[in-house]
Amino acid sequence: MSQLFSPYQLGNLTLANRIVIAPMCQYSAKDGCATDWHTIHLGHLALSGAALLIIEATAVEPDGRISPFDVGLWSDETEAALGKALEAARSWSDMPIAIQLAHAGRKASVAQPWKGGGQLGLDEGGWNVHAPSAVGFESYPRPPRALTRDDIARLVEAFAVAARRSVRLGLAAIELHGAHGYLMHQFLSPLSNRREDEYGGSLENRMRFPLQVLDAVRSVVPAGYPVGFRISGTDWVEGGWDVGQSIVFSEAAKTHGADFIHVSSGGLSAAQTIPLGPSYQVPFARAVKQATGIPTIAVGLITEPEQAEAIIGTGEADLIGLARGILYDPRWPWHAAAQLGASVKAPDQYLRSQPRQYSKLFA
C-alpha cells in the first residue's frame, strides 16, 4: 500500500491522503476581498485529489498585506467575499479547505511579482510599514516603524478575530505564517529583531509574539480544531534563524497547542545562500519531527511521486506540501496515485477520463 495515499488524522480532521496544497499568493484580490479569480483557483485545486487545500497568506489587517492585491480577513466584507468563493468550491468538492493567516510586516506594500515586486511609493497605492524593529528589508526605500507594545497587543487580537471568522466560514484548519521573512518570522530572527524589551534579545523573548498569537487563536477555535505554524527552518544566513532555534520554537508551539509545523526556509534576508535541489528543505522537517514528535509538512522541490512516497515512507515528514508544482500540474495527485498503484477521488464528471491501464485509479 502506498504510504503517500494512506489516511492521516490531524487534530479532529481526517485527511484522505498525505498531500497538502500549500498556500500560494495570487495577488488578485480587491481591497482584501477574494474575486472570481479565487473562485477559479480554489475550485480547480479542490478537484485535484489532494487531501487538504490551504488558502494563500490572508492578511489580518490592511497594512498586513504583502501587496494591495492580497486577500484579507479583517472585516465583514472580506469575510463575505471569501465565503462566496468557498461556497462555489464546496458545491463540487468535499476536500477540506484551510487558511493561512498572516501579516507581512516590513515586507508589506509591494507591487505584484509580475510588475517587479518592489516597494510601492505612497503615491502608488503603498503605505508605511511596521516591524519588530526599524530595520528595513533589502533596498526598500521606506524603513519600517518599530511596533509598540500596544501595537503588538492589537495585532494579537487581529489574529484572534481573523481566526473567529475562519471558523465561521467553516474552514477546516488554520496555519499561522511564521516563515518567509514576514512579521512573525521577523520577530523570531535575530537579523530583523533588534528589540531590547521582552520581545527581543533572547530566543525566549523573540518567540513571545508568535506564541501569543498561537495562544490567542487557540483560545477562540473549538477543541480539536487543527492550528499550526509555517516556519522557515533557517534564514540561510550566518548568525540568523537556524534549525536549532526552529526545533526549540516547534517544541514551544507544541506545548502551546500547535497541531503541526509546516517547514519551509529563507525569505528574510537578501544575503541568503540557498543550495537548491530536490527535497532541499526536507532535512529541516525531519529534524523538527525527530526532535519534537509534532506532525510536520515538508515542502520544497518535491516533484516526483516516488520522492514523495519515500519522504512519507521513511518517516521524514507526515505530510507533503505542493505549491508551484501543483500549479504546473493540477492533477499531480492523480498521476502520483496511478504511478504508485493507489486510488484517488475524482469528480463524477471526470470519471470517464480514467485511463484503461489504471482501472482502479478513481476510488
Plain-language structure description:
With about 375 residues, the protein is α/β, with parallel strands linked by helices. The chain contains 11 helices and 12 strands. The strands form 3 sheets. An 8-stranded parallel β-barrel has the order 3-4-5-8-9-10-11-12, surrounded by 5 helices. α9 (about 305-315) links the parallel β11 (about 295-300) and β12 (about 320). α3 runs parallel beside α6. The radius of gyration is 20 Å and the shape is globular. The mean pLDDT is about 95.
Whole-number average pLDDT?
97
Shape: globular
Order of helices and strands: EEEHEHEEEHEHHHEHEHEHEHH
Task: Tell me the total number of β-strands.
Answer: 12
Portion in helices: 25-40%
| Major sheet strand order | 3-4-5-8-9-10-11-12
**Poorly predicted ranges:** none
Percent in strands = 5-15%
**Cα-atom Rg, whole angstroms?**
20 Å
State the oligomer. Answer: single chain
Biggest sheet descriptor: 8 strands, parallel, barrel
Instruction: Provide the structure class.
Output: alpha/beta
Tally of individual helices: 11
Kindly, what is the distance between the CA atoms of the first and last residues, rounded to a whole number of angstroms?
14 Å
Main traits of this protein?
alpha/beta, eight-stranded parallel beta barrel, single chain, globular, 12 strands, two-stranded antiparallel ribbon, 11 helices, 363 residues
